[in-house]
Specification:
This protein is α/β, with parallel strands linked by helices. 23% of the residues lie in helices and 23% in strands. The chain has helices at 48-58, 143-159, 173-183, 192-203, 235-238, 257-260, 276-285, 299-306, and strands at 5-6, 10-12, 17-19, 27-29, 43-46, 62-65, 72-73, 78-83, 91-97, 100-104, 126-130, 163-167, 188-190, 213-214, 224-227, 243-248, 266-268, 290-294, 311-315. The longest helix is centred in the middle third of the chain and has 17 residues, at 143-159. The radius of gyration is 20 Å and the shape is globular.
Length: 333
C-alpha cells in the first residue's frame, strides 16, 4: 500500500505528492484555505473556490483549479476532489495509484453547511482522516437545536438593549453564522476580516439571505456583530459596555471550556468539524482496509482498533493557538 508520512503536512513519498503542507513546496494539493493548511507554494492544486480564497489570503500564486468530481490524471496518480462540508471550497482528496484508492478527508463534517457543499462518505482502501473531535464526549447536539439556542440568546440580548457579539472564524464559520442570522432577519455587522471573506463568497456565487454591513464604530445599536475569536479581548469588543458574547466552537463541549473562554457569556457547540459519531460513521462506511488519523489525539485510533479496524495515529494537532495568560489553549475549530 502507498506509504503515508506526516511532516507538517501529508506526504506520499511513493508519488512525491504533498497535501496541506505547512511549509512552501514546489507543488501541493490544498484542501481548504485556513491558515494552518496553506503556505506560499510555487503551485497549488485546489477547487476553484479554495484557489480564489488562497489568493485572497496569500496573494497571487500559480493555481490549478480542479472542480468537485472531476478526475484528473497526473501520470503516476489521478486526483478527484469531493466536498468536505468544512467551508466554501473545502475538499476531500481521492488519490488513485497502483490500484489503490487513498482518501484524505482534510477538515470535514457530514452535517449541513448552509453556505458550502455538503460532504458524503467516499469509498476507499486507505482513509487518512482528520479526527479533531475523536473522543466520545464530543457528540454535537442536532444543529437545529444549537441554532435555536443562538436565536434565543440574540433575542434576549437585543431585548435587554445589549449588543450580541458572535465569535466565529473569519473564513468559514463566520459566513455560516452570517447566513444563519440573516435567515432570522437580524441586522448584522461584520468585523473587517469576516466582511472581506464574505465578499469573496459573494463573488464565488454564494447568495446570502439578506444585506449585511461592515463594522462601524458607534453604529452597533440593534445589530449583531460577528468577529473572529481573536478579537474578544481587543478594544473593538471590550469597549462595548453592554455586550453579550457568544462563541461558536466545538470546544464548547470541552470539560474546561468555561474556564478557558473567560469573558464569553455563552458557548455554543456549532462546529465545522466532524464529531465523534460522524468519525465512526466515515470509518465504517468508507470500507477502508487501513485508517490513519491526523489531528486529534492518538486515543481515537486506539478506539478504532478496539472496534476491529486497522488504524494508526499519524499526527496530533498542529501547534496550538497562542494561549492567554493563565489559560489553557485549545486547537483551532
Amino acid at each position: 500500500m502507498l506509504r503515508v508520512e506526516y511532516h507538517r503536512g501529508l506526504y506520499l513519498p511513493d508519488l512525491d505528492l504533498w497535501l496541506d503542507a505547512a511549509e512552501p513546496r514546489a507543488a501541493c494539493v490544498i484542501t481548504h484555505a485556513h491558515s494552518d493548511h496553506i503556505a506560499r507554494h510555487r503551485r497549488v492544486i485546489a477547487t476553484p473556490e479554495t484557489a480564489r480564497l488562497f489568493r485572497h489570503r496569500l496573494g497571487d500564486a500559480e493555481t490549478e483549479e480542479l472542480p468537485y468530481g472531476e478526475r484528473r490524471d497526473y501520470g503516476r496518480y489521478a486526483l478527484t476532489l469531493y466536498p468536505a462540508g468544512h467551508c466554501l471550497g473545502a475538499a476531500q482528496v481521492l488519490v488513485e495509484a497502483d490500484g489503490e484508492r487513498l482518501l484524505y478527508t482534510g477538515d470535514f463534517k457530514l452535517r449541513e453547511n448552509v453556505v458550502a457543499a455538503s460532504a458524503r462518505v467516499i469509498a476507499c482502501d486507505t482513509l487518512v482522516m482528520e479526527a479533531t473531535f475523536g473522543e466520545p464526549h464530543y457528540r454535537f447536539p442536532p444543529q437545529e437545536e444549537v441554532v435555536s439556542r443562538l436565536y434565543q440568546a440574540v433575542d434576549q440580548a437585543l431585548a435587554q438593549r445589549r449588543v450580541p457579539v458572535v465569535l466565529a472564524y473569519a473564513l468559514g464559520k463566520g459566513q455560516e453564522a452570517l447566513e444563519l442570522l440573516l435567515r432570522r432577519g437580524y441586522r448584522v455587522m461584520l468585523h473587517g476580516a469576516v466582511w472581506n471573506v464574505a465578499q469573496v463568497y459573494r463573488e464565488l456565487g454564494v447568495r446570502f439571505s439578506g444585506e449585511f454591513f461592515r463594522y462601524e464604530r458607534g453604529a452597533l445599536d440593534r445589530h449583531v456583530l460577528i468577529a473572529p475569536p481573536s478579537c474578544r479581548q481587543m478594544p473593538m469588543i471590550a469597549n462595548i459596555a453592554q455586550r453579550y458574547v457568544i462563541m461558536l466552537t466545538g470546544w464548547a463541549l470541552h470539560r474546561s471550556a468555561p474556564y478557558i473562554y473567560r469573558g464569553v457569556d455563552l458557548l455554543l457547540p456549532l462546529s465545522d468539524h466532524a464529531d465523534f459519531d460522524e468519525l465512526l460513521r466515515v470509518a465504517s462506511e468508507s470500507g477502508a482496509r487501513r485508517i490513519l488519523t491526523t489531528h486529534g489525539e492518538a486515543g481515537f485510533a486506539m478506539r478504532l482498533r478496539a472496534l476491529g479496524f486497522e488504524a494508526q495515529h499519524l499526527a496530533s494537532h498542529p501547534p496550538r493557538a497562542k494561549r492567554s495568560r493563565g489559560q489553557r489553549a485549545l486547537p483551532l475549530d
